[in-house]
Amino acid sequence: MRILWTKSYKLNHKLGSFKIFVSHHSNGSFFGAVMHYTKKGDWSKEETIEIDTKLEQFIDTNEERVYQQCLSWINENLKGEYNIILDEYLEFEK
Prior knowledge:
By secondary structure, this protein is an alpha+beta fold.
């Protein structure tokens, strides 16, 4: 299974920047992912800060549906206003 193209979106939020990835594969499926991070600890309390990157993954046979699955996860887990811009589009040789 080859990747035909990928789109990378930048999500800007008051908590920082997050990424959304959507890719189209040669078997007809679309893969979507939301990359975000979690933070534990508080420097003001002299605690060690631990930052971990997480990836929420979705798959569908339709690009719009997989993108909407990503947005649904964001709306459930990332409260507040945000904006999304297409950051990169890569098409691979067929």
